[in-house]
Amino acid sequence: MYKKSLALIPAATLALLTLAAAPVHAQTPPPGGSISITGTITATVTAVDQKDRWVTLKRADGSVVDIQVGPEAKNFPQIRVGDQVTAQHQETVDITVIPPGQAAPNVSAGSSLVTAPAGSKPLAVQVDTAVITGQVTAIDYDDRLVTLLGPLGNSRTLVVGPAARRFNEVKVGDNIQLTLKSSTMIEVTAPAKK
Predict the structure, then answer these.
(1) What is the pTM of this model?
(2) Is the residue at 177 inside a domain?
């Protein structure tokens, strides 16, 4: 029922734009950082077609949208006119610079889904995670360029923005690990009693 309205900025570029200084400790960790983008959409159910599984939603701005809900959505019969639908979406990129020899270019991914128990109003929380590691093969500190070798042997040169701190500490041979997490929660609740 939720159409992503937020697009994740290309991860590698974002990673290099957001390298941030960590607090100074006895042993300073390598450069790294995190950034999140969050959005919430709310709407009111104005019509339900139980047979064909269609829901009409009216958003806060007055616009109306019809959505066909697939069979994977549990508890569809519990949706009623007047219910409130809230969709929250968050995308997070965590960046860690790993010294040479501690990681190799790699990619892995996973997904999890939690739904409401039978008989209650619909609720779904889905979390998708991908971890991508690329090796730094070239750096131009003056022009703020870094070249990464990806897990499939592809190479890409990226511009590092002025907001990146501690860029001068990144070295050829380091690995940059990006953890991309996308979470979406869709919840249907009965209207508040007046």
Answers:
(1) 0.66
(2) yes
